[in-house]
Design brief:
The structure holds 2 protein chains of 2 kinds. Chain A has a domain at about 80-225 and about 270-280: MetI-like fold, CATH 1.10.3720. Helix content of chain A is about 80%, strand content about 0%. Chain A has helices spanning about 5-40, 40-45, 60-70, 70-100, 110-120, 125-135, 145-165, 170-180, 185-215, 215-220, 230-240, 245-280. In chain A, α4 (about 70-100) runs parallel beside α7 and α7 (about 145-165) crosses α9 (about 185-215). Chain A starts with 6 loop residues before the first helix and ends with a helix. Chain B is an all-alpha fold. Chain B has 2 domains: about 1-45; about 70-300, Orthogonal Bundle (MetI-like fold). Chain B has a two-stranded antiparallel sheet. The longest helix of chain B is centred in the N-terminal third of the chain and has 31 residues, at about 70-100. Chain B is globular and about 70 Å long. The chains are: A mainly alpha, B mainly alpha. Chains A and B meet through α1, α4, α5, α6 and α7 of A and α1, α2, α4, α5 and α6 of B.
Chain lengths: ~280, ~300
């Protein structure tokens, strides 16, 4: 097809460029403004709140947040809970996803459905009994208690995504290995797992981000700095200590760093995985 | 250790291998989903107030009867409906516009797509305080920009004006959640073969006609599933409202899951909080059934 641009087509294409620019600005400007605010002087923010100037920017707020608040402890707690969640959710999700993908046993749809139903349930309805349960087995305000709750709620997505990634592999590869005398476990470990590794990374990132971002569970299931995660801590710091704007935005930017790193590493793959699952349904 | 691995390996060769792999996750779901769900439903028919003691007494439908005359439940139901309907319409509209704009290849398209999706991954706490700051009556840049283009938010600002607060949260919800729809719609658009577009162009169809009669029907299943998922999230998750307004000022932005949350963890009235949640669950299930039926009808035509 020959592309020649009529005035109308030109108008249309510049209109769409305008639209795309608007979208990008709408998405990213709030984050940039937050980053900018975190580098400003706290009195400057109150005096000239919307002034844009690159002079006088400093890292003071970050240093204050790091030294004067409990933010480092909270970050550490979050990292522990997230790591535990990733290990549990991924191992369980890979096993279950593999089972659902590779076999056609009876009742398969019901198992798959169980995982989806979890999404339908109002969080508070489950939270009260989970709170009472954790209280009784002594897991309230512990990393492992929180991670168990996160695992349960991220598991549906993990299973679903891993099933999709296993589905996408040609089954002949594994069959060939098995004919050659490989056990099922061996075939899974040596053939399939290496091939779904990018998918596994994407799933890991999604699980990690969900656990990292959670507020509601952490709010209920933790009560002290022993296990409290950063979103809850940030909420309290803002409420109790009236954190100045520059420190508030600094914590916001700090919390965003792991998300942006994870997302930029496997973003496209993750997005592909999410939408592939959606289309197949 | 080695013997265990070998035994697991042997079971995996047998016909029951899927169950061996599924059991651990099923146990987890049983303990942390099924049992809590059962307990939650029992609690909704009970009186259980932690401040009065740990015991649970069965009271039948009393909690539900009380709900019908609770003015807070009335306000929260109204707000939840507004949140659901306005939220869905605005997010789907912007999500579709974004998907159409980012569907065609252009320079840096992958990077652009990733940037536009980013808000969806920003932690809700960060989103909430970031926007509270930017929409602040005195210091907020968004407030000033809005005034600049002629939208007067008013002297008290979004967060102190009961008639505007919920819409303020809805705006932030739009920023955060439209990428969800964009992602799904984009995946659908990518699946439409180019030949279809070319032949429609040959037949003289305008882009709007193509959108209305080809695109929409083709991606209808995706529109259906994504809107259902987002509707469930909008009804179920009080996170953003909790963080931005805590339901205030007064009860102006109170939504049902937040009311249940307050009853549970501020008043420690676990029985009543559970009944509110059960009522929400029943409404969602009812809504989902009606929605699925309605969509099914259209497919039969």
């Amino acid at each position: 097809m020959i592309r020649e641009k009529s005035p109308a087509a030109k108008f249309k294409s510049s209109l769409s460029t305008l639209g795309v620019t608007g979208l990008v600005l709408f998405s990213v400007l709030p984050l940039l403004w937050t980053a900018y605010t975190s580098l400003r002087d706290k009195n400057e923010i109150l005096l000239n709140s919307t002034k844009i100037s690159l002079s006088g920017l400093k890292l003071e707020a970050y240093i204050q947040v790091w030294q004067d608040t409990s933010f480092p402890t909270l970050l550490r707690n979050s990292l522990i809970a997230v790591s535990l969640t990733m290990v549990m959710s991924l191992s369980l999700g890979t096993a279950a996803g593999y089972a659902l993908s590779r076999s056609k046993f009876r009742g398969r749809q019901y198992v798959a459905l169980t995982y989806l139903t979890v999404r339908l349930l109002p969080g508070v309805l489950l939270l009260i009994p989970i709170y009472l349960l954790m209280f009784r087995i002594g897991l309230l305000d512990t990393h492992i208690g929180l991670a168990l709750a996160y695992t349960t709620f991220t598991l549906p997505a993990a299973v679903w995504l891993m099933k999709g990634f296993f589905d996408a592999l040609p089954p002949d590869l594994e069959n060939a290995a098995r004919v050659d005398g490989c056990s099922r476990l061996g075939a899974m470990r040596r053939i399939s797992l290496p091939l779904v590794l990018p998918g596994l990374a994407a799933t890991a990132t999604l699980v990690a981000i969900e656990a990292w971002n959670d507020v509601i569970f952490a709010l209920m299931l933790t009560s002290s700095e022993k296990a409290r995660t950063w979103p809850v801590g940030m909420r309290e710091m803002i409420g109790e200590f009236q954190l100045p704007w520059n420190q508030l935005t600094a914590t916001a930017i700090l919390s965003l760093i792991p998300v942006v790193i994870g997302f930029s590493l496997v973003g496209t793959k993750m997005v592909a995985g999410i939408t592939a699952g959606a289309i197949k349904e | 250790m080695r013997a265990t691995v070998r035994r697991v390996g042997r079971v995996l060769e047998g016909p029951n291998f899927p169950w061996v792999l599924l059991v651990p996750s099923l146990v987890l779901v049983l303990v942390f989903i099924a049992y809590p769900l059962y307990r939650g439903i029992i609690l909704s028919f009970s009186r259980n107030r932690l401040l009065e003691g740990p015991e649970t007494t069965f009271v039948g439908l009393e909690n539900f009867r009380f709900m019908l005359q609770d003015p807070q439940v009335f306000i929260a139901t109204k707000n939840t409906l507004v949140y659901l309907i306005v939220g869905l319409i605005t997010q789907m509209t912007l999500g579709m516009a974004a998907a159409l704009l980012l569907n065609k290849p252009r320079r840096f398209i992958t990077l652009i797509r990733l940037i536009v999706i980013l808000p969806w991954f920003v932690p809700p706490v960060t989103t909430a305080y970031m926007w509270r700051f930017m929409l602040d009556a005195d210091y907020g840049i968004a407030t000033k920009l809005a005034a600049y283009v002629g939208i007067d938010i008013g002297g008290a600002g979004l967060w102190a004006d009961p008639s505007k607060t919920l819409y303020g949260v809805l705006f932030v919800e739009l920023w955060r959640s439209f990428p969800f729809f964009m992602l799904f719609f984009l995946a659908g658009l990518q699946g439409i073969p180019n030949e279809l577009r070319d032949s429609a162009a040959v037949d003289g169809a305008s882009s709007f006609q193509f959108f209305r009669h080809v695109t929409i029907p083709l991606i209808a299943p995706i529109i259906f599933i994504s809107s259902l998922l987002e509707a469930i999230k909008l009804i179920n998750s009080p996170t953003l409202v909790l963080l931005m307004t805590s339901g205030g000022p007064g009860d102006a932005s109170l939504v049902l899951p937040l009311l249940a949350f307050r009853k549970a963890f501020q008043a420690f009235d676990f029985g009543y909080a559970s009944s509110i949640s059960v009522a929400v669950l029943i409404s969602i299930a009812g809504f989902a059934i009606v929605y699925i039926r309605a969509a099914g009808y259209r497919r039969d035509d």
